[in-house]
Each structure stands twice: as C-alpha cells, then as structure tokens.
Design goal:
The chain is mainly alpha-helical and 726 residues long. It has 6 domains: 15-91 and 100-148, 5 helical Cullin repeat like, CATH 1.20.1310.10; 194-262, Cullin Repeats (5 helical Cullin repeat like, Up-down Bundle); 273-451, Cullin Repeats (5 helical Cullin repeat like, Up-down Bundle), CATH 1.20.1310; 463-528, no CATH class; 541-643, Ribosomal Protein S5, domain 2 (2-Layer Sandwich); 646-724, Orthogonal Bundle (Arc Repressor Mutant, subunit A), CATH 1.10.10. It has 29 helices and 9 strands. Strand 1 and strand 2 (552-559) form a beta hairpin. Helix 15 (299-320) packs parallel to helix 17 (351-365), helix 18 runs antiparallel to helix 19 and helix 18 packs parallel to helix 20 (413-429). The longest helix is centred in the C-terminal third of the chain and has 30 residues, at 645-674. It is elongated, with a radius of gyration of 48 Å. Keywords: Biological rhythms, DNA damage, DNA repair, Host-virus interaction, Isopeptide bond, Phosphoprotein, Ubl conjugation, Ubl conjugation pathway.
C-alpha cells in the first residue's frame, strides 16, 4: 500500500479571525445585555472551534477575558451610586441592597454559563492544556470577586446585611431564607470571602448573643425550661446550616452554642435543678439533661458527680433515720428500682453511671453499720413466711432477686447471716415457711453470692428437717408396737447443735403424759444412736389443742407455753398470775407475753381481771366459756414468730462475739506466716482478710488481748513491731 501525503491544510480567509471575533464579541455583548443573539448558537460554537484549530486560542481567551472584565467593572457603578450611610437597624435599605447584589450575582452566573457554552471548545482544549489559566467559569468568579465583592464598601454592606437578617431570624422574625442561601453560596463560591470575611464575624456575633442569653435565662427560667430552650436553639442553628450556611460552619457554630448555653453553666444547671428532676422522676427532662450534657466536654463527668451525690444523700436519709427502720428495706428497693429505670431510659445504660450508682449505694448503706443487714434479713423472713401477700412464685422470686442486689452492697454480711438463720429456724420449726422451693432458691442465691462456707450451716438446718421426717416415720412404727401408745401424737425435730441458733434452755413443768412421751422417744432414739445426748428445747415447741365452748368444739394452734397455761384450766376456772407461774415454771417475761396473747389478743380464750393491755402481778385469769370465732382451727401461736428485744440483742451480741474470734484467728494466722510484722502492715493485712467492717481501735484491743495471752509479743526496742510466739 502506498500512502500518499495529505494535501496541504486549507488557509483561513484573510479577515476570518477578525470577522469571527466581531461576531463572537457581539454575541457576548447580547448575553450581557440580556437581549437576543442574532446568530445560531451552533454556528458560534463552530466558529470558536475553527479559531482554536488555527492556533488563535491564546488571543481568543485574552479577548474574551477583557470583554468580561469590562462588563463586570461597569457593574460596580450601580453599587457606588447606592447610599452607603446606613445603620445596622435600617433594615429595609439593607434588604434592598442585598436583593440588588443578589440579582447582580444571579445575572453574572447566568451570563457566564451561556458564554461558557459558546466557548466550550476553547475551555476544553486550550484552557485545559494550560494549567496556569483559570477555566472560563473560574475566570468569571475571579472577576466578580476582584471587582465587586472585594470592594470594601460593597463587602461590608453585604455582610452587615446578611448578619442583620440572621439576627432578625434568631429573634423570631420571618426572613427571606432563599435570599440568604443565594448570598451565602455566592460568598462560598468566591472562595476565601466566606471564611475570612463572613464566618469569623458571624461566629463572634453568635458568641456574644448566646453568652448574654445564657446569663439572662439562667436567672429567669427553671432548669427544664432552660434546657428545653437550649435544645430549641441547637435545633435552630442546625437547621440554619442545612438551609443556608456553608456546611463547614456547622462544627464551630454548634460548639459555640454548646459552650455559651451549656458549657459555661454546667454546675449551675445541676445545682439548681437536678435534685428536683430526680425527686419528681421527670424522665423526659432527665433524658434531655443527659443528651445535652453528653455534647459538652466534661459535661458527663460533672453530671456523674452530681448523680452520685444525689444517690448518697437520698439513700442516707433512708438508712440513717431509726424512725424509718420499719420501711427501710422497701424504700431501698423502690429507690433502687427508680435509679435503675433512670439509667436504662434516660442515661442509655451508660456503664459509668451504673458503676457509680453501685459505689454510691455501697457508701450510704454502710454509713449505719449492721442495722440494714439485720432489716434485710427480717424483710426476707416476712416474704418467705406463710401468709405473705406475694401471690405467685414468680413474684416472690423477683423480690428475692432484688433483695440480693441490695444485699451485695452490705459489708457486715455476718449480721445478715445471724438474723436470717434465727428467722429461718423459726420458720422451719414452727411450720411457717411459705414454700420449700422459695427457701431453697434463696439459699442457692446466698451460696452463689457468698460461697459455700456462708450457707453450710443453713443447708445443715434443711438436712436436719429432712432427717427428722425419716426418724418420725420410724418412731410412728415404733409407737404402734407399744402396749400403751397414749393419745398424744408427738412430732420431734432433731437439731444438730452447730447448725442452729443457740437457744437458752428453759426448764418448764410438763404434765406427766408429755414427760412419759419424751422418755419413750429418748429410749427409741438413743437405742438407734448411742453416744448422742438429747436436750429438749421448749421455746419453739408447739401443739394443737382441742377445746369445748358453749358454741361448740374448736382447735387451737398454740405454742408449748400457751399449751401449759391452757391445760391448767382443765383443773379450774380461775388462776392468778402467781399460781400460773408456779404451776408452769415458765420464765417471768415469757409468761407475761404468753398470757397477753391468750387474754389481750384477737382470740381471747382467757379473760383478764382487771382489764388492760399489760399483764401485772396479781392479775387473775378466767376461762372464757363464751368464746366465739368464725374459724374452727385458730392460730394463736404467732407470738412464737415475733422477735423479742432480748432475742434481737442476743443475736447482735453473738455476731460481735463471733467477729472477735475471727479477728483473733486472722491475727494469729498472719503472724504465724510472717513471724515479725509492724503494726500498720498487720492492720492493713487484716483489713484485706476480714469480710466485715471493723474500727482500728477494735483491732488494737484484739492485738493487746493476744499479747496478754502470749500468742505474740512486742519488740523490746520498737513497740510498733510484733513477733509471733510459737
């Protein structure tokens, strides 16, 4: 194949460049004057392409720039003629000026788009190949910026006018948002004008406005209204960014509002209103508080501190006041429910708030040592007793779970154990437990919380009850083989001494039939288990008595002491206090309680003479033959379940006694291992090992006691140093 050279490129007609430019110049003029163009746009586009093909691009670009520049320069005159002596409050004049500058900008943009479409070939070839040259559109922006917006008077008046409009909108007036949007996008398009000339002044004015507003409204408004206002302001400013401000302004603008309306007043807001919001459980206001405070640096931290203080102060009022002891545990549970709900709903389950709440509970609940532990044990007792109001097992289980949460905060768990053990013993022995399942569920919760050592004795009590049932089955069979089985049905619970609370033995005068039955059981039991010793505990014995009245037969569920008193009335109708005391052998205060329950309670089987609430020396008691009651079997032995003051004191004393033994054992253990130790190190080691609260003074006493008993000795040269004595 032979490729022949192309023919020479045709030359342009002589005046083609000049004539074509005149045609293009005329078209640009028509666009700038907003009149119709004589020529076809396609024809104009082709003309530009032709010129560019013949290396006239540089001249063409220069000529176009010159024409555009002359036109833009001419535009400034209309603003020069405009009156510039305008105050910020002369808003009408300012608005007219803004509309005029906006129209000028809109016209300029429209014209440059049109011009660019004609000179598109130039823009996409020559301009693109010369990186130093701005595109036709950018050239237009540059000219507008240099000759109009950079004019000092025009720029000042434009920005003053925009700021005035925004201020009016912030004060609640309706303004032309599309005008603002157009003007601010103009400043953004003109590159640094927005940042350097507008944004800086806008943020300064915003800062001043909200600083003054924050100070004023903090004085005038209540906290919920103030926070509501802050929220409203943040939403408004956010909306401004979306509607007409440049997106880059969002961060500094919102930060400015947060700082002036929130950051400057964090402590004041919480001191003025947090306690009220929490007291009144105002969930939506608390949610808003949390959300707003989370936006500000250090806001959550200060909210945490006030939250903790509130819990401690409120909790302390529940725990410290002895008059509130009756309802203390229920109030603690209600308070815990309330703070849990606030954390879940308002504080978005924030871990920091949860952990601080736990610490605060632990702090206030241990401000009053021992009593909360005792009252929690009694509360559990009231729920596990037969006849409580919690209908379903699920409800009871839920309450026990809540109790365990409060129990966790307590330091002196040994106090709880002592009272729980005493009450459990009564429930088991007097047959007053609501459900074995609930009892065992509580036991497993305690075991999980405190370990097997804590519950081993309590588990032993249940084991004794199970074994006693088996023993009684064998005893019933044994009795059937007796020649004279008697007409009293005896049930005995055999208790292992170490597991159960210690009871003071009380010698009472049982009737011959009871004594005989006791002996029969003793013979039977010791025959099976030689080497064991039985000690009869009368205080928790109970019986079912059959009685006849004028109205008919009744059955009474009574304590052993009540039984002994009532059986006397088979021998006579009237006895004095002294006679009853002599006959029964029941201890004085116990007998007074027993007679009170029979003659002054709801079911008055006896009549006391003279009448009165308390049993005095010399009072006489008469059998009430006219006794009436709607039930056939009547329980009068609730008295056994009630705790006496003596019982309460002795349980507490026993805990303190046990603590002394534990301290002694811990000291000896540490000294045996270390051989020689300074006082401060020994005390800190003890605090690590002991599971109950103890004062340094008490530890000192125990150390002195052990020195006296030759378990350890002081160093001869240094009295603060101890040595273990092997």
């Amino acid at each position: 194949l032979v490729v022949s050279y192309f023919t020479e490129r045709p030359k342009l007609p002589e005046n083609y460049t000049h004539d074509t430019w005149q045609k293009l110049h005329e078209a640009v003029g028509a666009i700038q004057s907003s009149i119709s163009i004589k020529y076809n746009l396609e024809e104009l586009y082709q003309a530009v392409e032709n010129l560019c093909s013949y290396k006239v691009s540089a001249t063409l670009y220069k000529q176009l720039r010159q024409v555009c520049e002359e036109h833009v320069k001419a535009q400034i005159l209309q603003f020069r003629e405009y009156p510039f002596v305008v105050h910020r409050n002369d808003s009408l004049d300012s608005l007219l000026f803004l509309k005029k500058i906006n129209k000028c900008w809109q016209d300029h943009c429209r014209q440059m788009i049109m011009i660019r479409s004609i000179f598109l070939f130039l823009d996409r070839t020559y301009v693109l190949q010369n990186s130093m040259l701005p595109s036709i559109w950018d050239m237009g922006l540059e000219l507008f910026r240099n000759h109009i917006i950079s004019d000092k008077q025009v720029q000042t008046k434009t920005i003053d006018g925009i700021l005035l409009l925004i201020e009016r909108e912030r004060n609640g007036e309706a303004v032309d948002r599309s005008l603002l949007r157009s003007l601010l996008s103009m400043l953004s398009d003109l590159q640094q004008v927005y940042k350097e000339s507008f944004e800086q002044r806008f943020l300064e004015e915003t800062n001043c406005l909200y600083a003054a507003e924050g100070q004023r409204l903090m004085q005038e408004r209540e906290v919920p209204e103030y926070l509501h206002h802050v929220n409203k302001r943040l939403e408004e400013e956010g909306d401004r960014v979306i509607t007409y401000l440049d997106h880059s302004t969002q961060k500094p603008l919102i930060a400015c509002v947060e700082k002036q309306l929130l950051g400057e007043h964090l402590s004041a807001i919480l001191q003025k209103g947090l306690d009220n919001l929490l007291d009144e459980n105002r969930i939506s206001d608390l949610t808003q508080t949390y959300q707003l405070f989370s936006r500000v640096k250090g806001g959550q931290q200060i909210l945490l501190q006030h939250w903790s203080e509130y819990i401690k102060n409120f909790g302390t009022t529940i725990v410290v006041n002895p008059e509130k002891d009756k309802d203390m545990v229920q109030e603690l549970l209600d308070f815990k429910d309330k703070v849990d709900h606030i954390i879940e709903v308002c504080f978005q389950k924030n871990e920091k708030f949860i952990n601080l709440m736990k610490e605060s509970f632990e702090t206030f609940i241990n401000k009053r040592p021992n009593k909360p532990a005792e009252l929690i044990a009694k509360y559990v007792d009231s729920k596990l007793r037969a006849g409580n109001k919690e209908a379903t097992d699920e409800e009871l289980e839920r309450i026990l779970d809540k109790i365990m949460i409060i129990f966790r905060f307590i330091h002196g768990k040994d106090v709880f154990e002592a009272f729980y053990k005493k009450d459990l013993a009564k429930r088991l022995l007097v047959g007053k437990s609501a459900s074995v399942d609930a009892e065992k569920s509580m036991l497993s919760k305690l075991k999980h919380e405190c370990g097997a050592a804590f519950t081993s004795k309590l588990e032993g009590m249940f084991k004794d009850m199970e074994l006693s049932k088996d023993v009684m089955v064998q005893f019933k069979q044994y009795m059937q083989n007796q020649s004279d089985p008697g007409n009293i049905d005896l049930t005995v619970n055999i208790l292992t001494m170490g597991y159960w609370p210690t009871y003071t033995p009380m010698e009472v005068h049982l009737n011959s039939e009871m004594i005989k039955l006791q002996e029969v059981f003793k013979t039977f039991y010791l025959g099976k288990h030689s080497g064991r010793k039985l000690q009869w505990q009368t205080t928790l014995g109970h019986a079912v008595l059959k009685a006849e009245f004028k109205e008919g037969k009744k059955e009474f569920q009574v304590s052993l002491f009540q039984t002994l008193v009532l059986l006397m009335f088979n021998e006579g109708d009237e006895f004095s206090f002294e006679e009853i005391k002599m006959a029964t052998g029941v201890e004085d205060s116990e007998l007074r309680r027993t007679l009170q329950s029979l003659a002054c309670g709801k079911a008055r089987v006896l009549i006391k003479n003279p009448k009165g609430k308390d049993v005095e020396d010399g009072d006489k008691f008469i059998f009430n033959g006219d006794f009436k009651h709607k039930l056939f079997r009547i329980k009068i032995n609730q008295i056994q379940m009630k705790e006496t003051v003596e019982e309460q004191v002795s349980t507490t004393e026993r805990v303190f006694q046990d603590r002394q033994y534990q301290i002694d054992a811990a000291i000896v253990r540490i000294m045996k291992m270390r051989k020689t130790l300074g006082h401060n190190l020994l005390v800190s080691e003890l605090y690590n090992q002991l599971k109950f609260p103890v004062k340094p003074g008490d530890l000192k006493k125990r150390i002195e006691s052990l020195i006296d008993r030759d378990y350890m000795e002081r160093d001869k040269d240094n009295p603060n140093q101890y040595h273990y004595v092997a």
